[in-house]
Amino acid sequence: MGRGKIEIRRIENNTNRQVTFCKRRNGLMKKAYELSVLCDAEIALIVFSSRGRIHEFANNNIRSTIDRYMNATSDASNSYTTHEINAQFYQQESKKLRQQIQMLEMSNRNLMGEGLGSLNMKEMKQLETRIERGITRIRAKKHEMILAETEDLQKREIMLEQQNACIRAKIQENEKLQQLSMMPSGQDYAFQAYFARDMLQLNMMDSLTAYPVHDKKTLHLGCLNFL
């Protein structure tokens, strides 16, 4: 029968832990020695026990091996210049931006009804919801613009009607003045009285233009009073 697997965890019994340490340490050093001989590798092994004792193995001078390790790690850390690091950073950012652009282009194509073959049912439902929301917002904005334009046209219509009514009233007054100017001289008193009444009506019409009337029905009634 083969040996069962040992659970890898700290051994609580001090005696058993020390025995296991000695066995594993010797086995580790044996493997390091075999690796150095078989593969001609430079190996340095340092082990500190729980009691603080040091155990080491090296097929060469252990100090020179450690110095070689320090130089190798230092060269690796300084091998990249600032320019190379920046170049790598910008390359990564450029790659991310290209991916985002591709995703946006694909999303726009999907909104136009293209490239739908790669979408599943859930993605199709989400796309449909996005399109419906977009159409709702577009229709609301369109309705708002139509209402604003209609209100502006109504205001312009009221203003033009007021100006037209004032112009008609002034034309009629001018016609009456021309008719009175053609009357005999014996009727000067009647002419002056009529002229004074007409001037009063003109002043009232001017006051109406200064304060625009926004109700169309009231405007028509006011104009009839002056006809």
What brief labels describe this structure?
DNA binding, about 230 residues, disordered C terminus, two-stranded antiparallel ribbon, mainly alpha, 6 helices
What do these coordinates show?
It is found in: Nucleus. GO terms for molecular function: DNA binding. Pfam families: K-box (PF01486), SRF-TF (PF00319). 74% of the residues lie in helices and 4% in strands. The protein contains 6 helices and 2 strands; from the N terminus they run αββααααα. Strands 1-2 form a two-stranded antiparallel sheet. α4 runs antiparallel to α5 and α4 packs parallel to α6.
Brief characterization of the structure:
74% of the residues lie in helices and 4% in strands. By secondary structure, it is mainly α.
Q: What is the count of β-strands?
A: 2
Strand order within the widest sheet?
A: 1-2
Our count of helices gives 6
List the secondary-structure elements in sequence, H or E. Answer: HEEHHHHH
Instruction: Show unreliable segments.
Output: 210-227
From the helix content, strand content and strand pairing, which structural class follows?
mainly alpha
**Major β-sheet profile:** 2 strands, antiparallel
Report how far apart the termini are. Answer: 127 Å
What Rg, in angstroms, do the CA atoms define?
51 Å
Question: Could you tell me the mean pLDDT?
Answer: 79
Give the overall shape, derived from the CA principal axes. Answer: rod-shaped
Helix content: over 70%
What portion of the residues fall into strands of 2 or more residues? under 5%
List strands and helices in order, with pairings.
Elements: H1 14-39, E1 44-48, E2 54-58, H2 62-78, H3 82-111, H4 121-181, H5 188-210, H6 216-226
